[in-house]
Amino acid sequence: MIAVIQRVTRASVTVDGATVSAIGGGLLILLGVAEGDSRRDAEVLADKIANLRIFSDSDDKMNLSLLTTGGAALVVSQFTLCANCVKGRRPDFFGAAKPDTANELYEYFCDRIKTAGVTEVKQGVFGADMKVELLNDGPVTIIINSGELKK
Predict the structure, then answer these.
(1) For this structure, is 79 an active site residue?
(2) Given pLDDT bands bounded at 50, 70 and 90, which one contains residue 150?
(3) Which end of the chain is more exposed for a tag (fewer CB within 10 A), N or C?
(4) Nearest 10 degrees: CA dihedral of 72, 66, 114, 101?
(5) 39: number of Cβ within 10 Å
């Protein structure tokens, strides 16, 4: 599982011109579910993200987590994070999990980050053509691969 997390002052998802989810301060999490990912991947990734100290304290040091700030999370499924760009000029997405499996693990990840203590968790629409708008704070953008966390 791959996550691109962005610290935001606001973020929203629009589908067919209608806003379906929006948050104020917190994290926008773009989540790619790869072939072979499991619930364990979702667990380690959700727990890591909820506790990752990437918010500034009163000394402007990254010492606070999503849990300590009470920030929100907007989780958007994004299979293109599993792209393979090694050959040719067009990426292939054979490494992405099949839609049924990906949706199940996406939903499980969202439940797990709530279980970790994040009180406001919003979601995009799985499989939809979404427009994601955000105001990146910092900017702070971090990529995390669950496979590296399980070592």
Answers:
(1) yes
(2) confident
(3) C
(4) 90
(5) 12
Q: What torsion do the CA atoms of 147, 84, 33, 27 make, to the nearest 10 degrees?
A: 80
- State pLDDT tens for residues 124-146: 999 999 999 999 999 999 999 99
Kindly name the residue from 55, 78, 109, 123 that is annotated as catalytic: 78
DSSP E strand boundaries for the chain: 2-15, 18-23, 26-32, 55-56, 62-64, 72-77, 121-123, 130-145
**Spatial distance between the Cα atoms of 119 and 24, rounded to a whole number of angstroms:** 13
Catalytic residue among 9, 19, 80, 119: 80
78 noted as active-site residue = yes
pLDDT in tens, 58-109: 999 999 999 999 999 999 999 999 999 999 999 999 999 999 999 999 999 9
Q: What does the angle CA 40 – CA 27 – CA 21 come to, to the nearest 5 degrees?
A: 100
Query: Among residues 6, 46, 57, 13, which one has the least CA distance to residue 27?
Result: 6
Check 6, 14, 55, 79 and give the catalytic one. Answer: 79
